[in-house]
Amino acid sequence: MAQQDTDQQHAGVLPVDDEGYVIDTEDCEKREAQWRECGTSRPITVVGNPVLHKECKDVTDFGEEFQQLVADMFASQRTAEGVGLAANQIGVDLKVFVYDCPDDEGVRHVGVVCNPKLVELPAERRRLDDSSEGCLSVPTAYAPLARPDYAEVTGQDEKGNPIRVRGTGYFARCLQHETDHLYGYLYIDRLSKRERKAALKQMAENEPRYPVVAND
Description:
Layout: H1 2-10, H2 28-37, E1 44-45, H3 64-79, E2 84-86, E3 96-102, E4 108-118, E5 128-129, E6 132-134, E7 142-144, E8 147-148, E9 150-156, E10 162-168, H4 169-182, H5 193-205, E11 212-213
Parallel strand pairs: 1-11
Antiparallel strand pairs: 2-3, 3-4, 4-9, 5-8, 6-7, 9-10
Helix pairs in contact: 2-3
């Protein structure tokens, strides 16, 4: 069983380390550019849009149309100057996110995760980081939010191969944030009512720096 899993990992798009986690830190500039240059930037959906507030559908078709979606997501992420983007943030009801995110050591990570599931950490590994968090779908608003400073996600790559991704610090926050999106949660949903109200007020008082889809 374990050996079979390892063989499947090595058949994936990205190489893996000795523990079976993807190595997403190599050729980042080239890989991101290849995706982005094939894509078309789309406007970002914002809080209140129904697609952001429900669990997305699993990705089951990894064909040409899906590959174009991933390219569009990388293009949209770059336009919005984000570090992660979930499909429902451009209005698509599918469980996939892309990322181009540094960790706390400044190491860049670039990749694609489909059908992600966060690995539950044992209590002894749950060290919380209460740094500030923001979201492209809640433009211009930021608030402190405690999350574990280490995260693991299982899922599939853009071709459907099983993958495992792990991260620390800021990148761990990104993995958790983007996975939340695909299950219908925004980071402001994890805030107190007062903090959520304050974040929405920040959003209302400022103009986003990238195109957004206005809610009717």
